[in-house]
Amino acid sequence: MLEPVRTMLLRAENIRMAFGGFLAVADAGLEVAEGEIVGLIGPNGAGKSTFFNCLAGDLKPSAGRVLFEETDITEASPEAHAALGIGRTFQVPATFEEMTILENVMVGAFLRHPREKEAREAARRALALTGLDRLAEHKAKSLGTPGRKRLGIARVMATEPRLVLLDEALAGLNPAEIRQAIELVRVIHRSGVTLVIVEHIMEVILTLAERIVVFNEGRVIAEGKPREIVNDPAVIDAYLGRSHARRAHQP
Amino acid sequence: MPRKPIIGWLALAAVLIGFPLVFTGAYYEQLAAFVILSAISASAWNLVGGYAGQVSVGHAVFFGAGAYMPLLFYKLWEASPLLGFPAGIAVSVVIAVVIGVPTFRLSGHYFSMATIAVAELIRILVSDWDFLGGAIGLMGPATSRGWWDLVYRSSVPYYYIFLAVLAVLLYITHRMERSRLGYYLRAIRAGERAARSLGVPVSRYKLYALMLSAGFTSLAGSLYAVKFGFVDPGSTLGILVSVQMVVMAALGGAGRLLGPLLGAIILVPLQTTTNTFFGGAGTGLAFILYGGIIMLLSRFEPGGLLELWERYQARREARMAKERALVGAGEDHAA
């Protein structure tokens, strides 16, 4: 069966990131097609978070470049990324604590809707999408970890992005919360948003991602469909361990 | 429910408009005028220090620019001090850009440090500059040549002018709270990194807030100059002027519409009393008073008195709801 031809949305080429003498990312690249869900995995310290921050504009790589629809955005600021349609969430949800949940989301909505009334309506839509609408008038600080992660997603969705970079959106959640969060990611994907997900929880990446990129020691060591990745000897050595590979083989 | 805030606003307006009619006498009138003037400068500070969370400790430089300009216009050309008002605002906005553009790119306390440094530098320069009267300062017109001189014997006309300016400033602030600028400033205060990720041009919006704040602080300085008819470096450019704005806003509630007004209503009479009792030693006492307030606030109530009140209200409502639920349960049992 032929795969439908998809346009390239994001491309990172030969990214290298050094902090003083420490090389966090040696040489890494990534291509993301419109409509894809790409997973970024790797052991702690593999450089995937640094790479991720280079994609989001939070870090400027020492070498290499990042293209969004063939426009060079390597030097662009985080706010310029948002304006272009690249949203991101944070591993530790940086909610605006003293503002209500609705107001938090409105900050994102103002990007496309400068008038307060329209921003409020757009924010309400994002809250409905993420299932937070009932809590709209509560302060953000009243939320627990799952709620905060959800708010982070609602906020970025209010910026009406084409690509969302999810930074460990599921870390710190219990199994039931993870199932709900996975469902939320699927809803967002179905709404037409392309996703790049950094995640530690292997099962999550295997269920969600269409394609997985594996990092180790600042380099991409494997790339492919989830089934290919769990069988890749290099990946098994670096990250998964033999037992996981066996489990993945079981039907 | 929607009627309640309007009643509150009308009551506040009635009290402020009626105050000089009830409390007559030069002492009360002067005190009331000074309360409103302090509320203007603290509310202006609040735009950048409260809402945007960029704590300036050098707002005296804007206050001073506003205070000197009208009297400089009078000294040079015997012009109406009113003509100096826009000049003061223009100078202040330029200084705001000069301070803001380099420091707002950096995060942390660079901005606070830069504001102190610039304000002290300018105070020292002005003290040594004969063109601006040096350490002695400048005088305004002694007697009124017409309404445009804004010279009145009584404090009451000044009180109402100040009150009108405060009303305009609070109205603008209120509108800002409900606009993109207001939301962006609060987001910047809460977390710059997250704000940027949502498309907020952080340095640009901080600069807008500082420019707006500088303009209104300058206006407060100009009003001070026409009211007192004389300015000198110590009373308009000194660090105490800046600290006073910070403490008033923080005491009432920084980043809240009425916080600075509440702070001014409490602090100005307190300060005037200490000055009356201790005379020349009062200046030093003000520092001790401000230091004490800053310590108490940062230890017990960083949100200021308005937040304390809100929390008390919330607790009371929760308790009443609980009592109602208990009474309801009791009735069920009886039935």
In oligomeric terms, what are we looking at? heterodimer
Which range does the strand content of chain A fall in? 15-25%
What is the share of helical residues of chain B?
A: over 70%
Average pLDDT, all residues of chain B: 90
Low-confidence stretches of chain A: none
The beta-strand count of chain A equals: 10
Structural class of chain A: alpha/beta
Q: What is the helix/strand order of chain B?
A: HHHHHEHHHHEHHHHH
Taking all Cα atoms into account, the compactness measure Rg of chain B is: 22 Å
List the secondary-structure elements of chain A in sequence, H or E. EEEHEEHEHHHEHEHEEHHH
The low-confidence runs of chain B, each spanning 5 or more residues with pLDDT under 50, are none
In this structure, how is the largest beta sheet of chain A organized?
A: 6 strands, mixed
How many beta strands in the DSSP annotation of chain B? Answer: 2
- Global outline of chain B: globular
Strand and helix layout:
The complex is a heterodimer of chains A (about 250) and B (about 325).
Chain A: E1 8-19, E2 22-33, E3 37-41, H1 48-56, E4 63-68, E5 71-72, H2 78-84, E6 86-88, H3 101-109, H4 116-130, H5 145-157, E7 163-167, H6 175-190, E8 194-198, H7 202-208, E9 211-216, E10 219-224, H8 226-231, H9 233-240, H10 242-249
Helix pairs in contact in A: 3-4, 3-5, 4-5
Chain B: H1 3-22, H2 26-51, H3 60-77, H4 84-103, H5 110-127, E1 138-139, H6 156-177, H7 180-190, H8 192-197, H9 202-228, E2 230-231, H10 233-237, H11 239-252, H12 259-278, H13 282-300, H14 304-334
Antiparallel strand pairs in B: 1-2
Helix pairs in contact in B: 2-6, 2-9, 2-11, 2-12, 3-4, 3-9, 4-9, 6-7, 7-9, 11-12, 11-13, 11-14, 12-13
